[in-house]
Amino acid sequence: MPKAPPDSMQHHLGVRLNSRAKERWQQLARVDVRFRTGFAYVSGELKDGDQVPLFRLPFTGVLHTWGFASYLASRGTYRDNSLPTGLPFGSPEDCLDCACYLYLSDQPA
Q: What predicted TM-score, i.e. pTM, was given to this entire model?
C-alpha cells in the first residue's frame, strides 16, 4: 500500500496549492487537500462555499513532482491523466492549473 507523504510535506503541498490558487484562480476561496493512503485529494472551495472536487495526486516520493489524476464529474471518480505537457506527472501547480482550466474557466475572475 502506498505511503502518505510526511506531515511537513503535506503542509507544504497545501501552502503551495493555496498560493497558486490565490495568484491565478480567484474563483476559489481556498484549496482543500486531504491525504489518504499515498494520495492527496484536492478540491476547491468556491467563493459561494460550494466544494468542487478537482484532482488526485499520487505521491511519488518527491515534493515537487506528483502524479496526476483528474476528477471525472460524470462518473464521480478519478482517472489517471496527462498534463498539457504530455506527461502523467508534474508540479502541484501545473496539476491545479490543468484541473481549473477544465472546471472553472481559462480566465481568472
A: 0.90
